[in-house]
Amino acid sequence: MAFPLPLETLLGKPLMFVVFGLIGFAFGYILEISGFGNSKKLAAQFYFTELTVLKVMFTAIVVAMVLIFIMVGLGVLDYNQIWVNPTYLWPGIVGGLIMGVGFIVGGFCPGTSLVSMATFKIDGLFFVLGGLAGIFLFGETVPLYEAWWNSSDYGRLTIQDWLNVPTGVVVVGVILMALFMFWGAEQLERIVGKRDLKKEPRLRVAAAGALFIGALVVLFIGDAGTAEKWGRISLEKEAALLIRQVQIHPGELLHSIGDDGLRLVMIDVRPEADYNLFHIEGARNVPMDRLLDLAKELQASYIPNQVVVLMSNDEVAATQAWKTLTAESVSNLYILEGGINNWLAVFSAFDPQITPTPNLPGEERIRFEFPAALGSRYEASFPDPHHWKIDYTPKIKLEVKRDKSGGGCG
Amino acid sequence: MSVAAPAQKKKSFWRRPEKDYVHPYLGGALLGILLFLAFFLTGNGLGASGGLNRMIVAVQDQIAPDHVDRNSYLLRMAGGDKNPLDDWIVPAVFGTIIGGFVSGWMNGRLKVETNKGPNISVRMRWLAAFGGGAIMGYGARLARGCTSGQALSGGATLSLGSWVFMFSVFAGAYALAYFVRKLWR
């Protein structure tokens, strides 16, 4: 089974909401038992007497991080399918500084104030009311500077992408940094907060060791390459190829071109020379060695009605591209049946300029002759969808992997 | 920490004996496991301010739907027949409130009180809480997420922006801490 689960398809909306409610319940419970309903405990962080906030937050981050990336490394969890907060650099920095001010003045952050309110703390209640007022004010004022709010958008940028190092290196680095911060926090508590560190449980040293070993495991497993990712899903996906579930008839492609309800992305993976000779209007030329960049782009632009159709002269190259992009978890991915040659066989029948040369040996060769490299200016490049009546078995089915709209803070 | 009154030792349904908070590393580890499970099962992390945001927008959409339709930020959540409450984060926020309540009840920490520094009045603390909340709420939406949705969730999935954000929060708080020490010390 592949994780994360497509909860909405699996359970239906009401039960899915129950699951999120339970996760929220556990979240509130854990915040409360950690003392986060108490503003004095939270504010103490900033006077170095008690660094509970830092300890709880960073422990949570590193524990979750190690578990997530072990599962990603083992191929159980699909990193492409989990929400990674997009980076809007400057709005993030300015918003963060403002939040810091709100934190020290108000004594909470939004999640902890809910817990405080739920345990009848009046300051928590006032903070929640203030928070609602601030959120309201933001919604009313953001139109004044929306361009800036949407600026410095780096999309889904991870630390490992930014540094261009394996994930395991970042995970080990984060663990080391966190352990150093825990040590520093305890020293501060000893000096400023006059805490006796001898009373701290010895178990924490063992736990630190376990975390470090977990990080080494992530480093040791390494990042899965495309071939490895394909290997994990090949059984099911080869079957889909074999029973021709994903090869769509030229007629269906033409129909999709005329369908305003879809966002159709046509990717032409042939050599540039062939592409310049003839291509379907609107198709993008992406060479095979640029497919990984394309996968990232397609994930970033993902919406549930985005359909990607791959094409080559025959099907061989397009099928190879399909495997690569499928392994990189691009959804709603199809192949043009019979490739451009089949497309031309259907749509160039009445164009005397294009003549078939069917007896060329070998695969992935264009089996037509053209008077000139006109690209998409041949009539067969843009047949009128309303003009052609073609019978085909429709195969495009929109699959909703999961609701990506929400994300961290909705 | 509030001093537990010794008279409260009698156990009743609502007044259970007050227990200590768990060790921060244990609380953190539990929180980390929960955060992992949330990502593992649903693909989403944790969050809070987004849910509050949607509740506000739902009210706005009831009172002034035309106004919502003219604001592209609000439109994204409540435009046309979109229901702003139809999002995972809304049940998560209700769950958080209930979870906090249940824990407070089980551990004897349900108490009407105001936690504050020793040198300010209760009213001053309420005012600061409201003002701080407003600043926090504004900043959280500006940064596209609060401590839970950005720092925890984005931190664990190694989002670069979330890490930069997290250090900005600490920087902002530490920079001002000295000047508002009267509130807490």
Walkthrough of the structure:
The complex is a heterodimer of chains A (410) and B (185). Chain A contains 17 helices and 9 strands. Chain A has 410 residues and is of the alpha/beta class. Chain A folds into 2 domains: 7-225, no CATH class; 227-381, Rhodanese-like domain (Oxidized Rhodanese, domain 1). In chain A, helix 14 (272-277) links the parallel strand 4 and strand 5 (284-285). With 185 residues, chain B is mostly helical. Chain B has 8 helices and no strands. At the A-B interface, helix 2, helix 3, helix 4, strand 1 and helix 5 of A face helix 1, helix 2, helix 4, helix 5 and helix 6 of B.
Gist?
The complex is a heterodimer of chains A (410) and B (185). Chain A is of the alpha/beta class and 410 residues long. In chain A, 52% of the residues lie in helices and 7% in strands.
